[in-house]
Please model this.
Amino acid sequence: MKIGIVCYPTYGGSGVIATELGKCLAQKGYEVHFITYNRPIRLDLFMENIYYHEVTTPNYPLFESLPYESALASKLVDVVKYYKLDLLHVHYAIPHASVAYLARQILRTFGINIPVIVTLHGTDITLVGKDKSFEPVVSFAINQSNGVTAVSEFLRKDTFDNFHITNEITVIPNFVDIQRFRRHSKEHFRKMLTTKGEKIIIHTSNFRKVKRVEDVIRVFEVIQKNIPAKLLMIGDGPQRKPAEDLSRELGVFDDIYFLGSQDPVEELYSIGDLFLLPSESETFGLAALEAMACGIPVITTSAGGLTEVVQDGISGYCCQVGDYRTMGERALELLSDDEKWKSFSVSARKIAESFSVENITPLYEELYRKIIETQTP
Ligand code: GMT
Model:
């Protein structure tokens, strides 16, 4: 089977999932074609069966914003036609679902019938998609797709609640490479980052408003008042500066490492004692899953799909959005009780194993086969 994958090539979770899925399919013998405006972040090595087609958007003085959608649609037509793809799998509805629809219509004029699967990831539905100006296009493109998947039950319901959907939506949760994301022996990092056995707290995100990065700093302040600790802030984005300012104001800046974007994060996760993800909304929380795979208990919120990943009282705690005091208390509870921490750490790993790439990829393969078989010529 020859599959075209369209995604955002950046650090976001949707791009990571799309790339890891493509890599796994390529290892299983599928021919996989990535079609994006940059090489996806996790597509780092040459691999058999993987092709990368870069979309370049031409500039012209008349254009205030570049016509990326048209450039992508034309590229899809070209790649599907000449590489004889069997299926297009696009990740993140905006604008990929409507662009794929357009490409499919164009290809029909050449007698080519290419099925399209759309995977809804999160902000395409929960934030961006709910902008009323996008609604007709998003609903139409989802309804016209041959298959639609959502990464959590929460997202599936949210899509039905907020868009005019007549198509089926199948939940296929996100996954993690449990060989890569596990506790590696990296104690020398701990020695580098700590001087007197401090606990290591970690947060990773794209530092957008929805992540409530300032709550991370406030939770850390609660922890730090009671237990010596260091905080690793991994990632970058618009809320980094406010978070830095707040940590100076609260007097905890010297115990925080703002590390920027890091790869491979699993090396740092290998020395993590606690992961903080106090998001306001999260359709899945891939960062929490990756941390759990490394045996790190997670303190998060009960927003969106997070409770489908982090089991409250078993692999971490799900608190109310904004309640950084309770998050801090829960963190202290775990960090000061070795036995409890160990039990949470073991459960976190075990739960993450149920989301392994080996368990989840076959669900996509099954959907691909079903959709190709039901295609009318
Ligand atoms: O977090 C973001 O805003 C990026 C976004 C993305 O598409 O890369 O993440 C969303 O998709 C991820 C992968 O499915 C999910 O794990 C994240 O929970 C989701 N983010 C939000 O819902 C805020």
